[in-house]
Design brief:
mainly alpha, globular
Length: 241
């Protein structure tokens, strides 16, 4: 498993997945920097980090998972290399499990980058415009914990997107699923039933109602791992055509 995982990591170095992983947090940081420059008075650190975290969970995270799973799947679908990979003397499930681990790992890295880059952007913005510099206490462990829970809550969404992207050679089904899921999550944000939507689970970590955050974390993380295991088993057993 470790050998297969190391190969997948090396593949990522030559793919657009790393560019996506850097671009998404950078866009949020640029937005935060621009907002600091537009501000006429200082705001609390909690406001700046909270806004960036909400943007990440509400829109950027679901769309990044959609694009990331499509890119990871295309590394094999594009050159039609599945037959070669599945003929290697390694358990088939490790081929898919290693890809899933890489995807979830990249989501976690992007979440951490959102926090780090936002802090950097706000600090630089404060130097450029001192009268709008952030004030108050910067509680990095608390913000990092929230982003970690968002990453866990996104496992179910990631598993569904990964399953679809690997199952179909065309990238269209995965994109349709991701765009459709994000759309319905956005329009159903305030609905009680929305907490059961995988694409809405990360943003529900920020909900003021404790039951929504707990439900999103348990279903997104716990059920997500079950679905991910089912996806790996199914993909390993099916014949590629």
């Amino acid at each position: 498993m470790l050998a297969v995982l190391s190969v997948e990591v090396r593949k990522l170095n030559r793919s657009l997945a790393l560019l996506l992983s850097a671009a998404a947090p950078t866009l949020i940081a640029v937005f935060a920097f621009a907002m600091v420059l537009r501000s006429e008075k200082p705001s609390e650190w909690s406001m700046w980090i909270g806004s960036a975290t909400a943007i990440w969970a509400y829109f950027m995270l679901p769309m990044c998972v959609t694009a990331l799973t499509a890119l990871v799947a295309h590394m094999e679908h594009g050159p039609r290399s599945w037959d070669h990979l599945r003929a290697l003397p390694v358990p088939r499930w490790t081929l898919y499990a290693s890809k899933a681990v890489c995807v979830i790992g990249l989501v976690g890295i992007m979440s951490a980058a959102v926090l780090a880059m936002t802090v950097g952007a706000v600090v630089v913005g404060g130097f450029v415009k001192p009268e709008a510099a952030a004030v108050g206490r910067l509680d990095l462990p608390a913000h990092a914990w929230i982003l970690a829970k968002m990453t866990a809550a996104a496992v179910l969404m990631t598993a569904l997107q990964f399953w679809t992207a690997i199952r179909f050679a065309s990238f269209v089904p995965g994109l349709v699923l991701g765009i459709g899921g994000t759309f319905f999550a956005v329009v159903a944000t305030s609905a009680k039933q929305g907490v059961f939507m995988p694409w809405q689970m990360p943003v529900n970590i920020l909900a003021t109602e404790a039951w929504r955050a707990q439900t999103a974390l348990m279903l997104g993380g716990g059920l997500g791992m079950v679905v991910l295991a089912a996806a790996v088993i199914h993909l390993a057993r099916r014949e590629v055509r």
